[in-house]
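Chapter review: from sequence to fold.
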Amino acid sequence: MFCGFQSFYCLYYRRVRLCLHKFCVPPSGFVDTPHPAIVDEKELVSHTEEITIDRPLDKVLEGSNRPLKDTIHKTSSLPGVSGDHMLTQGTFRAPGSRRLTCLTDGSTLEEEVLQRERTNNSYRFRYVVWNYTSETARPIVYGIGDFHDSDLGDGRAHVVWTYSFMLNRERFPGEFGGFGRFLFRVGFLDRQYADMMRATLNGTKTNVER
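The token string follows.
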């Protein structure tokens, strides 16, 4: 009898968790705060990935316009995205628009669009990420994602994605200044985070070119 109840409870619990993962809402005690002041780029730790997609820029932008959870690829060392919740009116496009992003490990973060510009042959999208609740992100004050997309004029587009982080100077490894930024780069940014960036760009290429 107990074993049967235990099995039923576990099944019910899993279903509830799966159901909750489909929704993204501000957690209890959540406070929507302005993003931190953005410092000079020399204080940031950055990594860049790039890819060429065999489609014109218009098609790349059209194919990239998908839910975040279907765009960011989960890796073995980093969680994926389970959903997002707009904190401002409209969609996450215009500068100043903000959203809460929920991750598959149960943590959350905030994002705000800083810049969005489109010309006939280029596109730039820049955003800031902060208010991380994940233990993995404890050393981070904020991150900045920066996409530079360009049309190559021959039916292809080139996508350059740079991610930069400002580290907390009162926590390891940020407390060690330049050496701490080096440790963060070689131990995390150029490894686990770079894997996620590459997987995301490759996923975008596959989706757009199919």
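Two observations follow directly from the output. The mean pLDDT is 89. The beta strands are 45-53, 81-86, 98-103, 108-118, 122-130, 140-151, 157-167.
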